[in-house]
Amino acid sequence: MLGLSLLKTMVLVGSLSASSLVHSSELVVVVHKDNPTEHLTRSQLIDLYMGKYVAFPDGSKAQPLDIDNDETTKEQFYQALVGMPLNRVNAYWSRVKFSGRARPPVVQQDQQAVLAYIESTGSAIAYIHKNNLTDKVKVVYRFDE
Amino acid sequence: MNKSGLLVRLAVVIGFASVAIGFLSTQLFYRLTVNQEIEIANQSIESLFKTVQATAATAAYLAEQDLAQEVVDGLSTNEVVKNVVMTFEGKSVKANSEPMHNSMIFPIASLFDPDQSIGQIAITPNIDYIKTRAEQLARENSKAMIMQAFIVTLVAIFVAFYLITKPMISIAKALHRTTPGDGSRLRVPEFHGNSELGVLVHDINKLLDKTESQFSEERKLREEIEALEKRFRMLFEKSISPIILMEPRGNILLYNSAFEQTLNKLGRNFQKSFGPLLSELFVEPETLANAVEVAFANDEIATGEFRLSSINDAESVWVQVIVTSIVSEDLREYYQVTLHDISKRKRELDMLAYQADFDKLTKLNNRQGLEKYLHNLIEAESPFTLVLMDLNWFKQVNDIYGHKSGDEILIFVADKIKKAIRPTDVAGRWGGDEFVLILNNADQTQTTQVVERLVHLISKPYYLRKYDQNVTIGASAGAASFPTDSSELQALLHLADQAMYQAKKVKESNPSDFLRFAESLIEEDNA
C-alpha cells in the first residue's frame, strides 16, 4: 500500500513538472547560425541580458534583443530567467540607466523582426518561441535544461 | 510658622522624596532611553538598508562604483549613521573617513538569486547623536518629573493641611485649652466623623470623662479627709488636757493650746524643748523618768501623778502624766505625753486630809492629826517632850459669855501657841479646852521656857468686844518625854495627864507652879 501511494505521488509530481516544462520550453534563446557560441549557461545569459557582461564567452561583443509588442512573451522570458515581473525589470533598468555604463537590450517589434535582426547581425542574441525557429538561427539555451 | 510643625515636616519630606524619586527615575529613564534609542537607531539603520538594498544590489551586481558611492553617501546623510562602507567584488566604497566601530553588517543579496551574496554594507551608528538625543529626552523627562514632583508636593501639602494638619491643630489647640474638670469637650472636626481623627477625639473625650469622674471622686475623698482632719485637729486643739508629741531627746514636735495654757499657768514661755520627758517642768523629774523607764521596760503605758514646778510660785499644779511610746512607719520613736490637770482633785483630797487632821476652829492639829504625828515620831525614834495643857477658868467664861466667846478665847489661845512654840515644834487641840505641844528634842529647861512663855501670853487679859469686858484665863500643863519617860504613846499621855492634874491642884494656891513633869510620878505614888 505504502509503495503504491508513493508511486502515485511520484507520477503526480512528474506530470506537474512536465506541464511547466511544456510551457517554458516554448521559449528558446537563439543566435546567428554562424555564431561560434554553441551553448550558454543561465548565469552567462543573465549577465548578457542584465547588462553586466554583454559579450559571448569568446569575448566578442553581443547584442541582446527584446520584443516590444508582445508583453506576454517578454514577461514569460524574464520570469523564467531572473524570476522578476516586468515592472521590476523596468525599474532595474531605470536605476542603471542614470549612472551606469550598462545599456538595456535593443527593442524589436516582434519575433519576426527579431529573427530578421539576428539574420543580419552576427552578434545578436534573442529569445523566440520554439515554433518560430528557423534554420538561420541556432539555439544556445533552453529553459527546460 | 513652626519649624517642627507637622505641615513643614510633611512638606520637607514630600519635597525631598519627590526630588529623590525624580532624580532616580530620571537616571533610570536616561539609561532606558539610551538603550531604546540605540534599539530605534538599529531598527532605523536596518530599514535604511532595506530602502537602499535594491540599489546597492544593483551597484554591487554591476560593480558600479558611482552608484555604490551614491548609496553610501545617501545612507550617511542620515543622522543616526556615522559612516558607511560598501564592499563588492573586491572593491570598497565609503562615505567618509570616520573610524568604523560597532558597525552593523548587512550582506547584499543578488538581485536574481537571493541566496547568493554579492557584497556587503557596513553601517556605523552615530552613538554620540543617539546619546545626545537620549539626553535631550531624559532632560525633558526630568523637567516633567520636577514639575510633577512640585505639583504632587503642593497637592500633598494641600490635602495634608486640610485633611490632617488643620483638624489636628484645632484638636491640639482645643485640648490645650481644656482643663480636666471644667466639663468642656472637644468637637469632632468636619468630615472626620469616622476617620482616625474622629476616633481620636472620641477617645480624648472619653478620657476627659474618666478623668473628670476620677477628679470628682478624689475631691470628694479629699473633702472627707479634710473634714476628718478638721475633727481630729479640733479634738486635739480643743482638748482641755495638754497633748504633746515629742522626740525621746525632748524636742517638741506638736502641742495643743491646752499645753500653752498650762505653761502660762506655770509662768513659763514655750520653748522648743524642756528636756527629755519635759523634765524641766516637773518638781521631781527623776521620779517621772524612773516610772516611765519601768513602765516601758514592762511594755506598758507610763502613768503617774506628778507636780509641775511653777516659776511664779502660784498654786501648785498637779498632773496625771500619760506617756506613750509611738514608733512611726519609718521606725522612729516618738513620745506622746498627755497631762491631765488633777490639781483641783489634789486640793480637795488635801483639804479632806486637812479636815481630818486639823481642828476647824483653831486651825491647829486635832487629836487625830496629833496622834498621827506622834506615831510617826515614835516610829522614827525621834526624841520629844509631850506637853498636855488645860485652860483654867475657861468653863466660867464659856458659861457667862456664851460659846462664841469661848471659841474666841480658844482662837486667841491657839494664836498664842503658834507664837510661843519653836519652829520645829508642833501643837494641837486635844479636845475641849485641852491643848498638846510636841516639843522636838527638848529637855526640861527648854520645855519650861516654851511653856512659861506661852502661859505668860495666855494669862494676859483678853478683851471681849461684844461685851466690852476683859477676861483672864490661865493654864495648867503636864509634860512627859519620849523615850526617857516611856516609849509608849498611851503611857506618855497618861503620864502627862497625871502631871497636869498635879499642877491643876495648885492652880489657885500657887498659880506660878503651872507646869509639872512626869518623872516623880512613881515616887509620889510610892510616897
From TrEMBL, chain A:
Keywords: Signal. Residues 1-24 form the signal peptide. It comes from the Bacteria. The keyword Signal applies. This is Phosphate ABC transporter substrate-binding protein. It comes from Alteromonas aquimaris.
TrEMBL record, chain B:
Residues 208-238 form a coiled coil. Residues 162-216 form the HAMP domain. It holds the Pfam family PAS. Residues 382-519 form the GGDEF domain. SMART domains: GGDEF. The keyword Nuclease does not apply. The keyword Transmembrane helix applies. This is Diguanylate cyclase. It comes from Alteromonas aquimaris.
